[in-house]
Amino acid sequence: MSKQSKHLKAVAEKFDRKTLYSVEEAVKILKDSAKARKFDETIDIAMNLGIDPKHADQQVRGMVSLPHGTGATVRVAVFARDAKADEAKASGADIVGAEDLAEKIKGGEIDFDRCIATPDMMPVVGTLGQILGPKGLMPNPKLGTVTPDVKKAVEDAKGGAIEFRAEKTGIIHAGVGKASFDEVKIVENVKAFIETIQKARPSGAKGTYINKVTLSSTMGPGIKIDMAALDEDAKAKAA
Prior knowledge:
With about 240 residues, this protein is of the alpha/beta class. It contains 9 helices and 9 strands. It has helices at about 5-10, 25-35, 80-90, 100-105, 120-125, 130, 150-160, 185-200, 225-239, and strands at about 40-50, 60-65, 75-80, 95, 115, 160-165, 170-180, 210-215, 225. Strands 7-1-8-9 form a 4-stranded antiparallel sheet, covered by helices on one side. The protein has a 3-stranded parallel sheet with strand order 4-3-5, sandwiched between helices. Strand 8 (about 210-215) and strand 9 (about 225) form a beta hairpin.
């Protein structure tokens, strides 16, 4: 048995898949597990919500800026003209354009992870709905990606702001950091994400809103989070 296999076996013996763990305990286990990898794993969160996204009043979607970013490199494209285009470039946008950018996208060139547009560019961007929409890249004013303040939008995207959206099954997935992050930073990112989802509870959600929360890493185990303990911590801090 290799050193890596022995390490992973030892990690697996330290936790029970049926047990609920605090965020701190889960992060510690995942970081320990990641020591055997030769690359920097992503720490992922999956939240099973008691909603049916098919109903308009039960959709959960938005943006969240994690306190310590995601550790991922985000390529940003901006639809803007003139001074706003210059502002986008100065803020760190990777791709800036107008009709020329739209033509590249129609031709299959989609070399970006986030798309931002100034309001006046929406007639151009609107023609790309069938291409960008299915990929989750369509600019949306509710998400702050259709805005005259391209500087803030680009900086937020580069700084670790991530979009969340419940899938048809009511599950939300997101990367909330890297295994190389300090434990405290990962914990704070996880708690910030969960708090944002809690606040995003839709008006149509009935009964239990958050059914299950699981933390995992790219190749690590899935660890169930004790939401009751998390709620108690939040109440204690608020008191």
